[in-house]
Design brief:
Elements (H helix, E strand, L loop, with lengths): L1 E6 L11 H4 L4 H14 L3 E6 L3 H13 L4 E5 L8 H9 L4 E5 L21 E4 L4 H18 L1
Parallel strand pairs: 1-2, 1-3, 3-4, 4-5
Helix pairs in contact: 3-4
The structure holds 1,3,4-trihydroxy-5-OXO-cyclohexanecarboxylic acid.
The site of 1,3,4-trihydroxy-5-OXO-cyclohexanecarboxylic acid has 10 residues, from loops.
Length: 148
């Protein structure tokens, strides 16, 4: 099974960005951790980060050609207002799981709204890097049950 991980704007600054909220672990730590988990779970992953909304959309479109079994998406602030990303998720026939490091429902009011949520098959949030692990495990279980 092969999964795509897409991280949105400002996540490249993990480790120095608002450390009281996002912690001291860096973006490199995140990618390293994701690759370790993928190896342990015997799946393949490709990890991207971009600060551009259009790039996220293009990565979603491109994922169809690459035959990914699922996508783990942290659109960062775009979560709260990008109907273009919502439409892109709806436009592809690959299951997308929304993830966030923090609990967006427990922060400022504008973060309590995820406009992409309804286009995704599940959401994991508030568990730091573990939100991504949960998403990976969810997609693997789903993939396995679809094989039967
Ligand atoms: C985030 C939450 C968003 O509200 C925020 O804009 C981010 C990161 C998270 O992972 O907790 O940049 O997606």
């Amino acid at each position: 099974m092969k999964f795509l991980v897409i991280n949105g704007p400002n996540l490249n600054l993990l480790g120095t960005r608002e450390v009281d909220i996002y912690g001291k672990k860096t973006y490199q730590d995140l990618t390293k951790q994701l690759k370790q988990w993928a190896k342990a779970l015997k799946v393949k992953i490709k990890v991207y980060q971009t600060n551009y909304e259009g790039k996220i959309i293009e990565l979603l479109h491109h994922a169809m050609k690459k035959k990914y079994a699922g996508i783990i998406l942290n659109p960062a602030a775009y979560t709260h207002y990008s109907y273009a990303i919502y439409d892109a998720i709806k436009a592809i026939n690959i299951p997308v799981v929304e993830v966030h490091l923090t609990n967006i429902y427990n922060r400022e009011d504008f973060r309590k709204i995820s406009v992409i949520k309804d286009a995704c098959i599940n959401s994991f949030y508030g568990e730091g890097f573990n939100s991504y692990l949960k998403a990976m495990q969810f997609l693997i279980e789903r993939g396995n049950s679809n094989d039967n």
